[in-house]
Amino acid sequence: MKLFLIGLFSGIIGGMGIGGGTILIPALTIIMGVEQHTAQSVNLLSFIPTAVIALIYHLKKRNIKYSILPLIITGGIIGSLVGANIAIVTKAILLKKIFAILLFSIGIYEILSKPRK
């Protein structure tokens, strides 16, 4: 039941475009005791079907700006190759700390940033 609820909440957040990994990875490591590398791998695999479903809805609502896709996709592919190689050679405890710092920094930024018009 815990895994289902973790998946449900991460799917909701992912479908909103926020990124289900912000819920999934901490929940798997803290609640379920899964090792950081494994949690990140599970996140990547679970992202595929949830992203497809969310994409279908966003396509129907015409929420996609196609002109920016080529550069974002190219950068994402290169970044994922680099990031995966870095993650493989990084110890789990350091990887967990880096992820925590990233989430904390994003949270602080969101709290302090002014709304856009």
From TrEMBL:
**Recorded superkingdom:** Bacteria
Per the record, its GO cellular-component terms are: plasma membrane
Stretches that traverse the bilayer = 12-34, 40-59, 66-88, 94-112
Topological relation to the membrane, as annotated: Multi-pass membrane protein
Could you list this entry's UniProt keywords, alphabetically sorted: Cell membrane, Membrane, Transmembrane, Transmembrane helix
Localisation per UniProt entry: Cell membrane; Membrane
Sequence similarity: Belongs to the 4-toluene sulfonate uptake permease (TSUP) (TC 2.A.102) family.
This chain's protein is named: Probable membrane transporter protein
Species in which this protein is naturally found: Caldanaerobacter subterraneus
Question: What high-level taxonomic lineage is stated for the organism?
Answer: Bacteria, Bacillati, Bacillota, Clostridia, Thermoanaerobacterales
